[in-house]
Amino acid sequence: MPQRNHITERCEVSKVNKRVILPIAMSTYQEILPDGVRFREWLDGMIASYPELLPVGTEKGYVLHGILPESSKLPGIRFRRIKLKDSDKEEKPVVLTIASSEVMPYMSGFTNDVEKALFLRRFGVPFWGLSYVFGRDDNYWYRITASLGRNSIVDTTVKEADKLPEHVLADEKHSRFNGEKAYIATTVGDDCVLGASLAMKADEPALREAYACFQKETGQLKADYQPKTVNTDGWWSLRTLGRHSSP
Hints:
Layout: E1 19-22, H1 26-32, H2 36-49, E2 62-67, E3 80-84, E4 95-100, H3 111-121, H4 127-134, H5 138-147, H6 153-157, E5 167-177, E6 180-189, E7 192-199, H7 204-221, E8 229-231, H8 236-244
Parallel strand pairs: 1-4, 5-8
Antiparallel strand pairs: 2-3, 3-4, 5-6, 6-7
Helix pairs in contact: 4-5, 7-8
């Protein structure tokens, strides 16, 4: 079975994702794709209903920017792109690909086709077991699972700095990584999970490094962000960490 690597720099995002995934059936998307007027009417409705799913500046206007070629991984699937009017003229214009939520990232499959296999991963079903039941190969399921955690959790969930929670709770979920004991440093606030980073040990240095991902991601959204309260349990390492700095 493939062994996953514990990459401590995983909270770093190499580049901003220019693909915007919106809730729409792929059949409906393909129907309105060639009709610029219908596509714009639908997209305008999405921007009004779900502004947090699109980058800042989209509300100031955009122009349709062509249709991408057919996907080599998913034959027949094409997406339309838009260019934001708010782009700085001295910089490269911001071009976004508008995608359907029925297609997985990197065109690796359809969500309905992989949903049941990914559900079984929460119960520890190995990748070779998924291959046996659902087909494909072990590496296919490994890559799909690994790709779910590549984006910033905070920046993906909270789009406006003033919506960052004033009160957060930090705790560790006991888990396993490649058969070894591990701890998932979890930060939540306003009924939402905002941080989940792996620590191979439960001492102060390991937890400090794990919780630093949440701290760094919130800093990218609001440089001076500081929660008013941080609720923790009685775990000695976390209490020691809390005396020096909040997660």
